[in-house]
Amino acid sequence: MSFIVDYYNYWIVVFLMMAGFYIVISANNLVKKIVGLNIFQTSVFMMYISIGKVQGGSAPIVADGITSYSNPLPHVLILTAIVVGVATTAVGLALVVRIKRAYGTVEENEFEDKDALI
Amino acid sequence: MFEQHFPVLPIVLPLIAAPLCMLLGRSQLAWLLATIVSGISFCIAVSLLMVTLDQGVLSYALGGWEPPWGIEMRLDVANALILSVVTGISTLVLVYAKDSIATEIPQSQHTLFYTAHLLCLTGLSGILTTGDAFNLFVFLEISSLATYTLVSLASDRRALTAAFRYLVMGTIGATFILIGVGMMYMKTGTLNMLDLAARIGEFEYNRTLNTGLAFILVGVSIKLALFPLHMWLPPAYTHAPSAVSAFLASTATKVAVYVMIRFIFTIYGAEYVFYSMGMDVILLVLAIVAIFNCSFVATVQSNVKTMLAYSSVAQIGYMILGISLVTTAGLMAGLLHIFNHALMKGALFMAVGAVFMRTGSADIKAFRGLGKTMPWTMAAFTIAGLSIIGVPLTAGFVSKWYLVTAALEQQHWMIAFLVLIGSLLAIVYIGRILEAAYFKDPVQSASDKTIKEAPLMMLVPMWILAVANIYFGIDTSLSVTAADAAANWLFEPSAQAVFQSASQSASELGAAR
Amino acid sequence: MILEVISTILLILGAFFSLTGAIGLFRFPDFFTRVHAASVTDSIATILIITGLILRTDFDLVAVKLLFILIFLLLTSPTASHALAKSARHGGLLTLAEIRESKKGDND
Amino acid sequence: MVELIDLVLLGMLAITALRVIFLKDLFAVVMLFGLYSFLSALIFVNLDAVDVAFTEAAVGAGISTVLMLGTLALTGRKEKANNHTALLPLLVVIITGAALIYGTLDMPPFGHPDNPAHQHVAPRYIEESPKEIGLPNMVTSVLASYRAFDTLGETAVVFAAAIGVLSLLGMPKPGGVAIDSGLKSHLVLRVVAKLVIPMTILFALYVQFHGDYGPGGGFQAGVIAAAAVILYALVFGLPLATHVVRPNFLKVLAALGVLIYAGTGVTSFFLGGNFLDYNVLASDPVVGQHIGIIVIEFGIGITVFAAMLGIFYGFAAQAERTNIQ
Fold first, then answer.
1. CATH label of the domain that carries residue A34
2. Which residues contact A49 (CB under 8 A, 6 or more apart)?
3. What are the sequence ranges of the domains in chain D?
4. Helices assigned H by DSSP within B153-206
5. Which of B26, B45, B261, B320 has the fewest beta carbons closer than 10 A?
6. What residues of A are in contact with residue D36 (Cβ under 8 Å)?
7. Domain containing residue A21
8. Structural class in CATH, domain D1-80
9. H or E stretch including C75?
């Protein structure tokens, strides 16, 4: 039982990651691919934040009468990673817009039919 | 007065120059600034290589916070060597780019090209020098984002889809690395590479750490285009502007190979990765399949850039092969091939870029008769091509020689034989182009435009690399010494410990100064 | 003590209205009725919940911040609903009554 | 209690993710993604990561969703049905997932205070940073001082993204032809927007300068300020917005932020410290840290503001162009 209590969080997060990953690799529509990429990354962020949680701790901002804080380091890492994620999303979506203009479609199999990549 | 800051300068200088480039607005000025900054970084990198050869490891604590609390830059022989290659190639490519991008990228985008190039250089230098696992991820993403931009700058619409595919694969790779780093952090509580190494060393076999390593290796394999995960590379290199192809082919994947070396040897330790997890067999098989599959594919390509891209994937196979031999000699051969391959591929892609500029095509048909019309370009191409094949007196021969020796040392006759067969395939694909260039008559073009030799600004960097290919094929003292020292250092955990204490005294010295 | 009881009642009421809004969003037949369900209950739930929370503070800076949030939400949330309904209208969506009208017209 | 809330939120996330897989209407997919982001922000709050939650809400549920909607407006909202079977992706995902589950088996238990992650590096941040840096918000201390180089990299990433979007989509010309792009007929919207926008900018400033004491900082502030101008552009039209905040000005601002940040590091060189060592910026190390953090947070703020707004301008310019055609 304690086994489940110890790990349920990670397991659900793994499920979420894989849902995102599945969308990325199976979607044919480029916008959906980007959505999947974001879901994948957000789920990884959840894994990190779960690492940082301390039971009975509070947010890592010094306050009177609080002795136990959660670990601030994963929070810092994920702040950085979120920014990296949105940067990638922005460039990816810009590429999608340009692809639409160049090919008239954002479905992967359709523009691959028009132009073999190699 | 800046000597003690040298480890961080190859990252900081391009990072400062990138926004300045954008502010300058004029492409000429931006080009000048980018080239000068890249050149200075190269000089610094070379001096760092000399220092590390002399006294081992340099450590630089950013923000004055001692590791593992702060982020640390660590320079040893291995990354100083690759850093010199990256900054050197970057400088040459920038010189080359001035004329090359004039025909391939619209005028209004030129400053953006230089800015993105500098950001990419920042990222690559950062990946090489950092001693912190998460910091590595951040720099990986800087270089990747800049790369997507660079690839998509080409006017061909296929560049867009190539860049998109690259973006999706690259981000999946980076996220996998992030997962792996998270798992390492979870078990050890630290992100500093040396600290991680020390703490991972306490575990004999741990499922979380194994998974972490697996994810990191898969993520890095995507970035370095190891065989089944290489599908993003050929389109990206084919459709990117020539200067970008030349830069990426000779630096980006090499840096990723170095990241793999770093995770395997510095953090987990060869013992853990190869003996506990048996990764060497997997890497060995993938490397050999990569060499054969991609060399074969390269022989049937009609677009020369695509052919060179597949050849790159095959050559990466040789580097991984060196690593997977699990000996100092093998690792040294791998590192040496990183160095030499950068020289060859840089020159080859530059030559193809020059041909593309003059003929408007990178198809093998466009190469017909170029031996007469573009003699200098084709001569450089020939030298670098011979180097890829591994003809004696070229750099390629040296690294293949060491690779074969390393394999024979282990009694792996089969592997040594396969490496030689791989070279035969290289003869086929390089030979096709040389045949077209020297023994076929040019196709009569309708426009009846005479093809001129490439401009001097493009020939000079191309020839510097071509001459380097011969120089490092004859005088191997510098490259072999550095690669040997690096391999020894990476392979011996005890040596790392010794260097660690040495670096501490060095940093104390720096502090005293 | 009394404050706490009042606050609890307010919070439960707020939660209840939120829930009804959510059910309405599912059960109502067309777009306009759904927007109606969501936006009206949203406003009342916001008022109730934030007042409930304010009663639980020491009436310090936190209470002021909550008050700001309340004002902000009361400004933006009805506006958003309004904009939604208006653009639906703009896009040619008819209310149920109008659809019935037009059907009647067809039949005649 | 924490676990229960966590579990409920995770369950909702799982449902959202599954819906995203099967939905074909991309508009709904994007809205569900916004929801996903928002729910994960709630989980972050629940797990004590308030700064992260703030950022996720501003970025994931805010900027990312806006950009995705902008893309949909240009590419169409229906995903075409594809016939190819998704067996290979499913296989890859199952293998990857199984590897991850295998990896969890030796993980330290969730939330346990004796986990290695809480024992090694972090205690120093928790115990010493209020003294060494002098700020109550440890996340800001670690972000802006101990791991300032990461944050410099992050600023560079944002800058790189701005460069990428700029090269791909270009920028609108300021004061271009005022076609009817804003929501001119929406009187209520315009009045409320006029009320809300100044408040938003004020809030952004508060977040920027209060980040040392509570959740917030340059990144969140930059995003919020950009959101205020984006709202302005949506309600009053892009030409007017580009008149207020000119695209060329944004380019300068984005570059300037990175330069301010890196310049702070270089200043430490000249004062005898390592790169980004704030201790040397003033005679008292704690004051030096404070100065350094305020300056670099300012740098981050303006780069993020300029980059996010610039990226939005890029997308909006494409939309205008399509409208004209």
1. 1.10.287.3510
2. A74, A75, A78, D43, D44, D47, D49, D52
3. 1-80, 131-325
4. 158-188, 193-200
5. B26
6. 39, 42
7. 2-54+66-117
8. mainly alpha
9. helix C61-90
Give chain D positions within 8 Å (CB) of A85. 59-60, 64
* ipTM of the shown complex: 0.93
* Strand, coil or helix: A34: helix
Q: pLDDT of B87-134, one tens digit each? A: 999 999 999 998 888 888 888 888 999 999 999 999 999 999 998 999
B273, B395 Cβ separation under 8 angstroms: no
Q: Helices (H) and strands (E) in chain D — how many of each?
A: 14, 0
Nearest chain D residue to C68 by CA distance is D199
Cα distance between residue D275 and residue D155, in whole Å: 16
- Pairwise CB contact (< 8 Å): B186 & A51: yes
How many structural domains does chain A have?
Answer: 1
Q: Which residues 6+ apart lie within 8 Å of B398 measured at CB?
A: B336, B340, B472, B473, B476, B479, B480
Question: Hey, what are B491's tokens?
Answer: 């392979």
B390: left (phi over 0), alpha (psi -120 to 50) or beta: left
Is A60 within the bounds of a domain?
A: no
pTM of the model: 0.93
The two three-digit tokens of residue D204, written as one number: 């952004």
Q: In the block, which residue shows the tokens 């115990």?
A: D127
State the DSSP code for A106. Answer: -
Which residues does chain C have with pLDDT short of 50? Answer: none
Contact A106/D at CB under 8 A: yes
Of B130-144, B189-203, C84-98, which range is least confident?
C84-98
Nearest alpha-carbon partner for C18 in C43, C53, C52:
C43
Please report residues of B whose CB lies closer than 8 A to that of D118: 189
C-alpha distances in Å from residue B428, one per residue of B298, B308, B473, C95: 9, 13, 22, 73
Of B380, B156, B353, nearest in space to B244 by CA? B353
Q: Which helix (H) or strand (E) holds B17?
A: helix B9-24
